[in-house]
Amino acid sequence: MLKAGIVGLPNVGKSTLFNAVTRTRKAAAENYPFCTIDPNVGVVEVPDSRLAPLAKIAKTDKIIPAAIEFVDIAGLVKGASQGEGLGNKFLSHIREVDAIVQVVRCFEDPDIAHVTGSVDPIRDIEIVTTELVLADLEALRRRRDKISKDVKSGDKHAVAESHVLDQIEPHLNSGKPAATLHFAREEWELARNCFLLTAKPTIFAANVKENELAAADTNPHITKVREYARSHHACDTVVLCAQLESDLADPTPRPAHLLHLQRKGSARLDDPRRRHGVARGGHDSHGL
Ligand SMILES: Nc1nc2c(ncn2[C@@H]2O[C@H](COP(=O)(O)OP(=O)(O)OP(=O)(O)O)[C@@H](O)[C@H]2O)c(=O)[nH]1
Ligand SMILES: [Mg+2]
Protein backbone atom coordinates (compact mmCIF):
# COMPACT_ATOMS: atom_id res chain seq x y z
CA MET A 1 0.00 0.00 0.00
CA LEU A 2 1.18 3.48 -0.86
CA LYS A 3 2.37 5.32 2.23
CA ALA A 4 2.16 9.13 2.33
CA GLY A 5 3.83 11.22 5.03
CA ILE A 6 2.35 14.53 6.18
CA VAL A 7 5.25 16.88 6.91
CA GLY A 8 5.82 20.57 7.62
CA LEU A 9 6.86 23.00 10.35
CA PRO A 10 5.36 22.48 13.83
CA ASN A 11 1.83 23.77 14.46
CA VAL A 12 0.86 24.29 10.81
CA GLY A 13 -2.11 21.89 10.82
CA LYS A 14 -0.62 18.50 9.92
CA SER A 15 -2.51 16.52 12.56
CA THR A 16 -5.66 18.51 11.83
CA LEU A 17 -5.36 17.48 8.17
CA PHE A 18 -4.61 13.90 9.16
CA ASN A 19 -7.81 13.79 11.23
CA ALA A 20 -9.72 15.24 8.29
CA VAL A 21 -8.51 12.74 5.70
CA THR A 22 -8.83 9.75 8.00
CA ARG A 23 -12.15 10.98 9.46
CA THR A 24 -10.90 10.38 12.96
CA ARG A 25 -9.89 12.24 16.08
CA LYS A 26 -6.92 9.95 16.31
CA ALA A 27 -4.26 12.62 16.22
CA ALA A 28 -4.01 15.22 18.96
CA ALA A 29 -4.14 18.60 17.23
CA GLU A 30 -3.43 21.29 19.79
CA ASN A 31 -2.14 24.80 19.62
CA TYR A 32 1.48 24.18 20.57
CA PRO A 33 4.54 23.12 18.59
CA PHE A 34 5.66 19.47 18.78
CA CYS A 35 2.20 18.33 19.80
CA THR A 36 2.89 15.25 17.67
CA ILE A 37 5.90 13.18 18.67
CA ASP A 38 5.11 9.61 17.66
CA PRO A 39 3.59 9.35 14.20
CA ASN A 40 -0.16 8.77 13.78
CA VAL A 41 -1.15 6.26 11.12
CA GLY A 42 -4.46 5.89 9.24
CA VAL A 43 -5.70 4.26 6.03
CA VAL A 44 -7.89 6.05 3.48
CA GLU A 45 -9.59 4.70 0.36
CA VAL A 46 -8.83 6.56 -2.85
CA PRO A 47 -11.95 7.56 -4.79
CA ASP A 48 -11.75 6.58 -8.44
CA SER A 49 -14.65 7.31 -10.75
CA ARG A 50 -13.30 4.74 -13.22
CA LEU A 51 -14.08 1.87 -10.83
CA ALA A 52 -17.90 1.80 -11.05
CA PRO A 53 -18.06 1.64 -14.88
CA LEU A 54 -15.28 -0.95 -14.85
CA ALA A 55 -17.19 -3.05 -12.29
CA LYS A 56 -20.25 -2.89 -14.56
CA ILE A 57 -18.26 -4.10 -17.52
CA ALA A 58 -16.71 -6.86 -15.41
CA LYS A 59 -20.20 -7.67 -14.04
CA THR A 60 -19.11 -7.59 -10.44
CA ASP A 61 -20.48 -5.89 -7.35
CA LYS A 62 -17.22 -6.14 -5.57
CA ILE A 63 -15.19 -2.96 -5.82
CA ILE A 64 -11.98 -2.72 -3.87
CA PRO A 65 -10.57 0.79 -4.24
CA ALA A 66 -6.89 1.51 -3.81
CA ALA A 67 -5.92 2.74 -0.38
CA ILE A 68 -3.27 5.05 0.99
CA GLU A 69 -1.74 4.88 4.42
CA PHE A 70 -1.29 8.39 5.82
CA VAL A 71 1.37 9.04 8.42
CA ASP A 72 1.17 12.24 10.45
CA ILE A 73 4.76 13.05 11.30
CA ALA A 74 6.24 15.34 13.97
CA GLY A 75 6.94 18.94 12.99
CA LEU A 76 10.41 19.80 11.81
CA VAL A 77 12.46 22.89 12.58
CA LYS A 78 15.66 24.49 11.31
CA GLY A 79 18.56 22.25 12.25
CA ALA A 80 16.49 19.02 12.24
CA SER A 81 19.09 17.35 10.04
CA GLN A 82 21.60 18.08 12.84
CA GLY A 83 19.24 16.69 15.47
CA GLU A 84 17.35 19.89 16.44
CA GLY A 85 13.75 19.51 17.59
CA LEU A 86 12.80 15.92 16.99
CA GLY A 87 15.46 15.94 14.28
CA ASN A 88 16.67 12.59 13.19
CA LYS A 89 13.66 10.73 14.53
CA PHE A 90 11.43 12.84 12.34
CA LEU A 91 13.64 12.27 9.33
CA SER A 92 13.65 8.52 9.77
CA HIS A 93 9.84 8.55 9.67
CA ILE A 94 9.91 10.43 6.37
CA ARG A 95 12.42 7.97 4.94
CA GLU A 96 9.81 5.21 5.24
CA VAL A 97 7.10 6.88 3.13
CA ASP A 98 6.60 6.71 -0.65
CA ALA A 99 5.17 10.21 -1.08
CA ILE A 100 5.08 13.45 0.87
CA VAL A 101 2.28 15.89 1.59
CA GLN A 102 3.93 19.08 2.80
CA VAL A 103 1.51 21.25 4.78
CA VAL A 104 2.25 24.94 4.45
CA ARG A 105 0.61 27.46 6.71
CA CYS A 106 -1.04 30.19 4.65
CA PHE A 107 -3.63 31.23 7.23
CA GLU A 108 -3.25 34.25 9.48
CA ASP A 109 -4.46 33.66 13.04
CA PRO A 110 -2.95 35.55 15.97
CA ASP A 111 -4.18 32.82 18.33
CA ILE A 112 -2.22 30.04 16.63
CA ALA A 113 1.49 30.19 17.41
CA HIS A 114 3.83 30.25 14.42
CA VAL A 115 7.28 28.83 15.17
CA THR A 116 8.98 31.35 12.92
CA GLY A 117 6.85 34.27 14.01
CA SER A 118 5.00 35.17 10.81
CA VAL A 119 3.09 33.68 7.91
CA ASP A 120 5.59 33.32 5.09
CA PRO A 121 4.92 30.09 3.20
CA ILE A 122 7.91 30.26 0.84
CA ARG A 123 10.34 30.75 3.72
CA ASP A 124 8.69 27.81 5.50
CA ILE A 125 8.96 25.56 2.44
CA GLU A 126 12.62 26.53 2.14
CA ILE A 127 13.28 25.66 5.79
CA VAL A 128 11.73 22.22 5.34
CA THR A 129 13.45 21.64 1.99
CA THR A 130 16.83 22.70 3.36
CA GLU A 131 16.58 20.17 6.17
CA LEU A 132 15.56 17.40 3.79
CA VAL A 133 18.37 18.33 1.38
CA LEU A 134 20.93 18.36 4.22
CA ALA A 135 19.72 14.96 5.37
CA ASP A 136 20.08 13.70 1.79
CA LEU A 137 23.63 15.04 1.54
CA GLU A 138 24.44 13.12 4.70
CA ALA A 139 22.84 9.97 3.25
CA LEU A 140 24.93 10.47 0.11
CA ARG A 141 28.10 10.78 2.16
CA ARG A 142 27.32 7.58 4.06
CA ARG A 143 26.60 5.73 0.83
CA ARG A 144 29.87 6.91 -0.69
CA ASP A 145 31.75 5.60 2.36
CA LYS A 146 30.01 2.27 1.98
CA ILE A 147 30.84 1.78 -1.69
CA SER A 148 34.27 3.43 -1.71
CA LYS A 149 36.19 0.14 -1.53
CA ASP A 150 34.24 -1.33 -4.45
CA VAL A 151 34.71 1.85 -6.47
CA LYS A 152 38.48 1.69 -5.90
CA SER A 153 38.59 -1.94 -6.94
CA GLY A 154 36.77 -1.00 -10.16
CA ASP A 155 33.49 -2.81 -9.46
CA LYS A 156 31.29 -1.86 -12.42
CA HIS A 157 28.07 -1.31 -10.49
CA ALA A 158 29.77 0.70 -7.74
CA VAL A 159 31.52 2.91 -10.31
CA ALA A 160 28.22 3.58 -12.08
CA GLU A 161 26.54 4.35 -8.75
CA SER A 162 29.35 6.67 -7.77
CA HIS A 163 28.95 8.51 -11.06
CA VAL A 164 25.25 9.04 -10.30
CA LEU A 165 26.09 10.27 -6.80
CA ASP A 166 28.52 12.74 -8.40
CA GLN A 167 25.60 14.25 -10.28
CA ILE A 168 23.22 14.32 -7.32
CA GLU A 169 25.62 16.04 -4.94
CA PRO A 170 26.03 19.42 -6.71
CA HIS A 171 22.28 19.49 -7.35
CA LEU A 172 21.57 19.07 -3.63
CA ASN A 173 24.36 21.45 -2.74
CA SER A 174 22.60 24.17 -4.71
CA GLY A 175 19.55 23.59 -2.50
CA LYS A 176 17.46 21.77 -5.08
CA PRO A 177 15.41 18.66 -4.30
CA ALA A 178 16.65 15.48 -5.99
CA ALA A 179 13.22 15.05 -7.62
CA THR A 180 14.06 17.85 -10.06
CA LEU A 181 17.06 15.96 -11.47
CA HIS A 182 16.47 14.83 -15.03
CA PHE A 183 17.52 11.24 -14.55
CA ALA A 184 16.77 8.21 -16.64
CA ARG A 185 15.14 5.24 -14.94
CA GLU A 186 18.50 3.42 -14.66
CA GLU A 187 20.07 6.40 -12.92
CA TRP A 188 17.25 6.53 -10.37
CA GLU A 189 17.75 2.83 -9.86
CA LEU A 190 21.43 3.43 -9.08
CA ALA A 191 20.48 6.19 -6.61
CA ARG A 192 17.98 3.96 -4.82
CA ASN A 193 20.25 2.92 -1.98
CA CYS A 194 20.52 6.49 -0.73
CA PHE A 195 16.77 6.53 0.04
CA LEU A 196 16.70 10.22 -0.81
CA LEU A 197 13.96 12.16 0.96
CA THR A 198 13.87 14.87 -1.68
CA ALA A 199 13.41 12.35 -4.48
CA LYS A 200 9.98 11.37 -3.14
CA PRO A 201 6.93 12.59 -5.05
CA THR A 202 5.51 15.57 -3.15
CA ILE A 203 2.38 17.70 -3.12
CA PHE A 204 2.00 20.90 -1.18
CA ALA A 205 -1.12 21.45 0.91
CA ALA A 206 -1.68 25.19 1.34
CA ASN A 207 -3.63 25.54 4.58
CA VAL A 208 -5.83 28.63 4.35
CA LYS A 209 -8.59 30.21 6.43
CA GLU A 210 -12.03 28.91 5.58
CA ASN A 211 -13.24 32.30 4.35
CA GLU A 212 -10.27 32.40 1.97
CA LEU A 213 -11.12 29.13 0.26
CA ALA A 214 -13.46 30.69 -2.27
CA ALA A 215 -10.96 33.35 -3.30
CA ALA A 216 -7.96 31.03 -3.25
CA ASP A 217 -6.83 32.07 -6.72
CA THR A 218 -6.40 35.69 -5.70
CA ASN A 219 -4.68 34.97 -2.37
CA PRO A 220 -1.05 36.13 -2.82
CA HIS A 221 0.29 33.46 -0.42
CA ILE A 222 -1.33 30.74 -2.49
CA THR A 223 -0.27 32.16 -5.83
CA LYS A 224 3.30 32.20 -4.52
CA VAL A 225 3.11 28.65 -3.17
CA ARG A 226 1.67 27.34 -6.44
CA GLU A 227 4.37 29.04 -8.52
CA TYR A 228 7.15 28.03 -6.17
CA ALA A 229 5.97 24.41 -5.99
CA ARG A 230 5.88 24.25 -9.77
CA SER A 231 9.16 26.00 -10.50
CA HIS A 232 11.32 24.71 -7.63
CA HIS A 233 9.80 21.29 -6.95
CA ALA A 234 7.97 20.47 -10.18
CA CYS A 235 4.91 19.51 -8.17
CA ASP A 236 1.31 20.52 -7.50
CA THR A 237 -0.46 22.38 -4.72
CA VAL A 238 -3.85 21.64 -3.18
CA VAL A 239 -5.61 24.42 -1.31
CA LEU A 240 -7.62 23.50 1.77
CA CYS A 241 -8.69 24.61 5.22
CA ALA A 242 -7.54 21.78 7.47
CA GLN A 243 -9.57 23.04 10.42
CA LEU A 244 -12.81 23.18 8.46
CA GLU A 245 -12.19 19.80 6.83
CA SER A 246 -11.45 18.30 10.22
CA ASP A 247 -14.60 19.84 11.75
CA LEU A 248 -16.67 18.50 8.87
CA ALA A 249 -15.19 15.05 9.21
CA ASP A 250 -15.63 14.87 12.99
CA PRO A 251 -17.03 11.38 13.63
CA THR A 252 -18.60 12.40 16.95
CA PRO A 253 -20.08 15.84 16.35
CA ARG A 254 -21.50 17.51 19.40
CA PRO A 255 -24.80 19.46 19.10
CA ALA A 256 -23.11 22.84 19.50
CA HIS A 257 -20.52 21.78 17.01
CA LEU A 258 -23.21 20.78 14.50
CA LEU A 259 -24.91 24.15 14.86
CA HIS A 260 -21.61 25.84 14.22
CA LEU A 261 -21.13 23.78 11.07
CA GLN A 262 -24.65 24.53 9.91
CA ARG A 263 -23.97 28.20 10.21
CA LYS A 264 -20.96 27.69 8.02
CA GLY A 265 -23.31 26.24 5.42
CA SER A 266 -21.76 22.84 5.57
CA ALA A 267 -23.85 21.20 2.88
CA ARG A 268 -20.51 19.70 2.03
CA LEU A 269 -20.56 17.43 5.05
CA ASP A 270 -21.66 14.55 2.89
CA ASP A 271 -19.45 15.44 0.00
CA PRO A 272 -16.73 12.79 -0.04
CA ARG A 273 -14.79 14.71 -2.67
CA ARG A 274 -13.58 17.17 -0.06
CA ARG A 275 -12.10 14.57 2.23
CA HIS A 276 -10.70 12.63 -0.66
CA GLY A 277 -9.01 15.63 -2.29
CA VAL A 278 -5.75 14.99 -0.50
CA ALA A 279 -5.99 11.23 -0.91
CA ARG A 280 -6.56 11.69 -4.63
CA GLY A 281 -3.69 14.22 -4.75
CA GLY A 282 -1.37 11.89 -2.85
CA HIS A 283 -2.26 9.09 -5.22
CA ASP A 284 -1.86 11.26 -8.34
CA SER A 285 1.45 12.67 -7.10
CA HIS A 286 2.64 9.10 -7.32
CA GLY A 287 1.61 8.95 -10.96
CA LEU A 288 -1.27 6.52 -10.31
N1 LIG B 1 -7.32 28.98 12.14
C1 LIG B 1 -6.88 27.76 11.78
N2 LIG B 1 -6.28 27.02 12.72
C2 LIG B 1 -5.83 25.80 12.33
C3 LIG B 1 -5.96 25.30 11.02
N3 LIG B 1 -5.40 24.08 10.96
C4 LIG B 1 -4.94 23.82 12.20
N4 LIG B 1 -5.20 24.86 13.03
C5 LIG B 1 -4.90 24.95 14.46
O1 LIG B 1 -3.51 24.97 14.60
C6 LIG B 1 -3.11 24.28 15.79
C7 LIG B 1 -2.06 23.25 15.43
O2 LIG B 1 -2.65 22.25 14.62
P1 LIG B 1 -2.02 20.79 14.52
O3 LIG B 1 -2.82 20.06 13.49
O4 LIG B 1 -1.85 20.19 15.86
O5 LIG B 1 -0.60 21.17 13.91
P2 LIG B 1 0.63 20.19 13.62
O6 LIG B 1 1.24 20.70 12.36
O7 LIG B 1 0.21 18.78 13.65
O8 LIG B 1 1.57 20.53 14.85
P3 LIG B 1 2.77 19.65 15.51
O9 LIG B 1 2.27 18.26 15.72
O10 LIG B 1 3.02 20.35 16.79
O11 LIG B 1 3.90 19.76 14.56
C8 LIG B 1 -4.38 23.67 16.38
O12 LIG B 1 -4.81 24.52 17.44
C9 LIG B 1 -5.35 23.70 15.22
O13 LIG B 1 -6.69 23.84 15.69
C10 LIG B 1 -6.64 26.12 10.06
O14 LIG B 1 -6.83 25.74 8.91
N5 LIG B 1 -7.05 27.34 10.49
MG1 LIG C 1 0.77 17.26 14.89
Written description of the protein model:
Helix 7 links the parallel strand 5 and strand 6 (237-240). It is globular and about 65 Å long. The protein has helices spanning 14-22, 51-57, 87-95, 121-152, 156-173, 185-191, 220-233, 242-248, 255-263, 272-285; strands spanning 2-7, 40-45, 67-72, 99-105, 202-207, 237-240. Helix 1 (14-22) runs parallel beside helix 8 (242-248). Strands 2-3-1-4-5-6 form a six-stranded mixed beta sheet, with helices on both faces. It is α/β, with parallel strands linked by helices. The two termini are 12 Å apart. 44% of the residues lie in helices and 12% in strands.
Query: Terminal Cα separation, in Å?
Result: 12 Å
Rg: 20 Å
Q: How many strand elements?
A: 6
Approximately how much helix is present in the residues? 40-55%
Rounded mean pLDDT is 85
Structural class: alpha/beta
Strand-and-helix sequence, N→C?
Answer: EHEHEHEHHHEHEHHH
User: Strand order within the widest sheet?
Assistant: 2-3-1-4-5-6
> How would you describe the shape?
globular
Largest sheet, if any? 6 strands, mixed
Low-confidence region ranges: 265-273
Bound molecule types: guanosine-5'-triphosphate, magnesium ion
Number of helices: 10
β-strand amount: 5-15%
